[in-house]
Amino acid sequence: MAMARWIATVGSFTMGSRLLGFTRDILIAAILGAGPVADAYFVAFKIPNFLRRLFAEGAFNAGFVPQFAGTLEREGRESARLFAEEVLAVLLWALLLLVIAAQIAMPGLMYVLAPGFADDPEKFDLAVELTRLTFPYLLFISLVSLLGGILNSLYRFAAAAATPILLNLCLIAALLGFARFTETPGHALAYGISAAGIVQFVWLVVACRRAGMVLRLPRPRLTPRVKRLLVIIAPAALGAGVAQVNLVVDVIIASLLPEGSILYLYYADRVNQLPLGVVGVAVGTALLPLLARQLRAGQAEAAAHSQNRAIEVALLLTVPAGAALMVMAGPVIAVLFERGAFDAAASAASASALVAYAAGLPAFVLIKVLTPGFFARADTKTPVRIAIVCLLVNVGLNLALMIPLGHVGIALATTLAGWLNAALLVRGLYRRGYFAADPRLLRRLPRIVLAAALMAAVLWLMVWQLESILAGPLELRVGALAALIVAGLASYGLCVRVFGAAYFGDLKSLTRRGPSEPGENEYCPPPPPGPAGVGARLDPPWAARHNCRARRSGAATLGRLWRSTRA
User: Fold this and answer.
1) Contact at 8 Å (CB) between 384 and 295?
2) How far apart are CA 237 and CA 157, in angstroms?
3) What is the pTM assigned to this prediction?
4) What's the distance, Cα to Cα, between the start and end of the chain in Å?
């Protein structure tokens, strides 16, 4: 199953990025602590980070990839390249104007992004300055998302998946190499963000050149294809990125809470983003171009199969991840971040938020897996209606829960809104005939939940037994956490096998090598009748044209028979 290999490719690079991100955050926690510079930096970083998720993994990707992939499938490579050039020309100039306008209007924007900072003029001015330094990243990350969409549509996932690694390397270098030359470490990090955008852009330009997709920069024109893309992107920004919009709302409201609340939510979200990025982003990234090209080729049955398997893989990995993070939130946060200026009180506050976020992890991943089912069909109206409802629910829950629960209430509101969003997406896909759970998914889902529940029980007992060690020196805490992770993986793997939630053959599909052409799956369109009653399904050119495999059983013998009849 080619999709599984693509998921593994994107997921492995994302895992590397997340691990580097933890290294970066450990350094930031130790150097910045939980003071005003940290709060100002995290607000400044939230904007480009939000835009990275929204553009690279959300709205632009959801709008551009289906249109580019459809053009590639129907009209060929050259027409698709010309479309990409048209988009590049318009996007570049529009973003330049936006960046300039934002630089001028930044003080006013800060009253919207972090209204609670207005009571502290020094923190407010610092946040404005740092956000001005980071905002040019918008220009480059949008161009990166364009180039990444091209590569993903060509099923070259590695280069685009590696770009977040470059961001983390640049930030670590800025913090360790340039912080002593700037006014504050926050300034060094802000410069590093914009520098990372340039590095990522150059990286993907080279990757596109190697893929034979060299883009020129024509005069910007609103061609019919560009207009259609712009119409799709606007609602897709809410439909695909509602979870990220909710996180921005969290920051705005958290700025009204006591100092450090933004920091606690940020570190909790960082831990939650590890499985969300590795699984959710990987599955969504691989699924969108696959669905788009299968649907354009008229392979509706193959598209339904791909959607079901994507949901199955996502839940198989994220249900246990969410359960484990809820049980191990305290040890995870303490081991990763509790050092230097980040004390035990800050660790406990972040752990409480992580429990709330982890409860919604499967929902956040399902959102990324379900939205391609709409966008691959150019259906953006349904996701935007769902997004508006969920945004309003999130704001209402934030305001209702922030008073009794503080920053934990904000995290819990995001989780509840995420589950509502996932439920409405499933309902929308089902009612429009875009999705129906197949017997395999219905059979395995309750078994996955049961296996995850038993794993969580094992971890809870171990955390209770290791309580004194987890409160000891860092070396002992690291060893105890490693033991918990190994026990969790072993117990979940055993339960999965015993209950039949997955089988070894499913894992083998992650490394199975097949044809390198798009749409690698077992479904073929009905072949025309061949000579002597032998179907053209066994003809290698037919399989190559329709991106499918010949039947392995007896294929060699029947293939020789078919070729002999042609001769």
Assistant:
1) no
2) 22
3) 0.69
4) 34
Q: What are the Cα distances from residue 202, in Å, to 71, 198, 503?
A: 25, 6, 42
Please provide the DSSP assignment of 129-149 as one string.
HHHHHHTTHHHHHHHHHHHHH
Contact assessment for residue 560 and residue 536, using Cβ atoms and an 8 Å cutoff: no
How far is the C-alpha of 91 from the C-alpha of 512, rounded, in Å?
38
Reading the block at residue 327, the tokens are 């049980």
**β partners of residue 521:** 548
Structure tokens at 431: 């009612």
Written as six digits, the tokens of 466 are 């290791």
**Quick count: other Cβ atoms within 10 Å of Cβ 175?**
19
Asked if residues 199 and 170 have their Cβ atoms less than 8 Å apart, the reply is: yes
Q: Looking at residues 339-365, what average pLDDT do you find?
A: 86
Q: How far apart are CA 360 and CA 400, in angstroms?
A: 18
Question: What tokens appear for 227 in the block?
Answer: 């207009």
**Residue whose pair of structure tokens reads 């039947």 in the numeric block:** 551
Q: How far apart are CA 160 and CA 171, in angstroms?
A: 18
The answer to whether 386 and 424 are in contact (CB under 8 A) is: yes
**Averaged pLDDT score across all residues of the chain:** 79
Token pair of 247 as six digits = 């996180």
pLDDT at 207 over 90: yes
- Higher pLDDT among residues 363 and 511, named by residue: 363
